[in-house]
Design goal:
This protein has 194 residues and is of the alpha+beta class. It has a single domain, classed as Gcn5-related N-acetyltransferase (GNAT) (Aminopeptidase, 3-Layer(aba) Sandwich), CATH 3.40.630. The chain has five helices and eight strands; from the N terminus they run ββαααβββαβαββ. It has helices at residues 26-35, 37-40, 53-68, 122-138, 152-160, and strands spanning 11-12, 16-20, 73-79, 84-92, 107-113, 142-148, 164-170, 185-192. The chain has an eight-stranded mixed beta sheet, with helices on both faces. Helix 4 links the parallel strand 5 (107-113) and strand 6. Helix 1 packs across helix 3. It binds coenzyme A (COA).
C-alpha cells in the first residue's frame, strides 16, 4: 500500500510510521497475521485460530472507535523504507492485566511483527514511539507489558524500553485462550515515567 493512501494521522519514528488501525487496513494486516501465524500462535491471545478478513475488520472497527475517543491506541506499524505494513503495536488501559498501582491503571503495551521483520529493533522502536506519544498527548506516565513467561523476545523488548520487571503471576482469566492450560504464567513489567 502506498504511503499517500494510508491515512492522515500517524506517529513517526526514525524508520516507521504508526497509523491508527482502521477497517481499510484489514486486508493488509490480516495477510500479515496469516503469513506469520506459526510465530504468533504460541504467544498472542488473539491468534488462537487463523482470523478471517471480516474478523480483523470487526476488531479494527472497534479499536478505531476507541482511538477516535482516545480510549485506546492500536496502531498499524508501517515500514517507511519498504512502504508496507509489518505488524501492530498497541497501548490500552482496558487491556491491562495488572492491578491499579497507587490508584492508576497502567496502559498495557503490546506488539507483534510479521516473522520476516523481527530481530531489527522495530518492535522496540514502535513501542517507544507510541509510549512517547501517549505520555505527551494523554499525560499518561504508567505503562505495563505482560508477556508469557517463556516469551524471551517480548521480555527483551520490555527491557530495551527500560520497563522494570515486577512479578511473574497467573495470567488473568480474561486474557487466557481456551486452548491454553488452566495455569498460564506471565511476566509483568512496569514503566513509571513520573
Ligand atoms: C516480540 C517481537 C514483537 C519482538 O520484535 P523485534 O522487532 O524482534 O524486537 P526487537 O528487535 O525490538 O528486540 C528483540 C530482542 O529480543 C532478542 N530476541 C529475539 N528472539 C529471542 C530469543 N528467542 N531468545 C533470546 N533473545 C531473543 C533480540 O536479539 C533482541 O535483543 P537486542 O535488542 O538485545 O538485540 C517479535 O518477536 C514477535 O512478533 N513475536 C511474536 C509475537 C509476540 O510474541 N508478541 C509479544 C506478545 S507479549
Amino acid at each position: 500500500m502506498a504511503s499517500e493512501n494510508v491515512g492522515a494521522f500517524y506517529i513517526e519514528t526514525d524508520r516507521l510510521k504508526l497509523f491508527p488501525a482502521q477497517p481499510k487496513f484489514s486486508k493488509d494486516i490480516n495477510g500479515l497475521v496469516l503469513d506469520s501465524f506459526d510465530t504468533l500462535h504460541p504467544w498472542m491471545s488473539f491468534a488462537q485460530h487463523r482470523p478471517t478478513v471480516d474478523e480483523t475488520e470487526g476488531f479494527f472497527k472497534m479499536v478505531y472507535e476507541n482511538f477516535l475517543d482516545k480510549k485506546g491506541f492500536h496502531m498499524a506499524v508501517f515500514l517507511k523504507s519498504e512502504n508496507k505494513f509489518i505488524g501492530m503495536v498497541s497501548a490500552d488501559e482496558r487491556n491491562c492485566p495488572v492491578e491499579p498501582i497507587e490508584g492508576t491503571i497502567p496502559y498495557d503495551v503490546g506488539y507483534w511483527l510479521h516473522k520476516c521483520y523481527t530481530g531489527r529493533g522495530y518492535a522496540s522502536e514502535a513501542a517507544r514511539g507510541l509510549i512517547k506519544y501517549i505520555q505527551e498527548e494523554m499525560k499518561v506516565d504508567l505503562f505495563s507489558i505482560c508477556c508469557l513467561e517463556k516469551n524471551v523476545a517480548s521480555s527483551k523488548v520490555a527491557e530495551n524500553l527500560n520497563f522494570r520487571y515486577i512479578s511473574t503471576s497467573d495470567l488473568p482469566l480474561a486474557h487466557k485462550r481456551s486452548d491454553w492450560p488452566v495455569r498460564v504464567l506471565c511476566k509483568v513489567y512496569i514503566l513509571d515515567l513520573k
